[in-house]
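hi support,

uploading two proteins for the ticket. first:
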Amino acid sequence: MPPCEQGSRKIQLPYINKFETVWEYKAAFLSGRIDFISSIGPVCPICNHTDCYRPITPYFRYAIDLFPQLKKEKIPIARFLCRSQKRTFSLLPIQLIPYFQYTAHAVLATLLLGLSCWQKGRRGFYGACLAVNPDSLVTPFLVMYWLTITVRSFRRAHARLGRVLDLKEICSTKIRIAWSEVRSYFWALGINPQIPWWPQFQALLHQYSRSTGQFLFGKPSQHRIATG
């Protein structure tokens, strides 16, 4: 993993794993079956020195999945301390998105529902809400936010994704309809409701984070503007 920016307060790095769900990750974490040190390597991602960091007490955050059923639980997140700079970094599993409670799977699957409604001439944001569990607290505004972030993330990663997938037919512009654009990306990336799309896409998440050291979706703490 590359060294982190010196001026950031909190550091979130992707924990690249092949667990099918975030719940499998949680079970492995709590049973002590994850070797985070081997995943990070000997070099501290903050100061770039060897054997500098050490594990500290993890923190817990909520994760929500919607499919095949609504599930909400607290998930442990591994944390580490850079001894030389006295700063911490955490490893967020790639099944999650920084600052999102809903899993990447929940977000994309909900957008698929909204896309289906939009293609039928209905309002995609409202249609997606009606299609998920009513106790999920998903709102049209939240679906609209997910669509915006997803399109922005695909645009940011377009060049990198284009190295392994055919994205030549996708032309991202600010005036393009978001549902139309996300449809183009979904189809190119194999996100299709007619097939079991998540395992293939999770492999893409794994590959993207492995090659870039970054999250495909969302902005981690170190890339957010500090306020106050």
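and the second one:
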Amino acid sequence: MKNIVVLYKSKYGSTKQYAQWIAEELDVPLLEASKVTPAQLKTYDLIIYGGGLYARTINGVKLVTRNPCKALMVFTVGLSNPATTNYSEVLSATFTPEMLDKTPIFHFHGGIFYGKLTTVHKGMMSMVKKHLEKQPPISRTAEDNNLIEAYGKDVDFSDRSSIAPLIQYVRAWQNESVNS
């Protein structure tokens, strides 16, 4: 059996929830990234890292991009619908082309909880809303309209069933490594 861990960095709880579901499903340890040293990363055969998306960055991901891992998978959690979101900009800014080639990346739909937001994040959301409202309604995407509608509310799109492709990938990886 390979040594696998789920690491996460979560500000408001959605990423932690997905990390917990993944760790439960795979029956592997779950650790908050800030409690892990770079030296500890080398002890795992596979690290599944989860971080929330904030201002086109993946929360805490430098832990695994700046320190070698035997095998790495990444999942992101954000307010945007993964089915309609292009992540290429954030991924190319975060990972080298070599890392992108060998790192499976999954995206999950999180939520927003206005009562928990920091003043900075509330300000950012206000600016995004104002920017979107200036756009002609006909040029807005469904995602844009959903952001405007959700502003100031608590919305949670988290869905445990959406982790299935990640779980399948890890199980295939486990089977492949056992058979090689």
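thanks. also noticed: Residues 11 and 137 are 32 Å apart (CA to CA).
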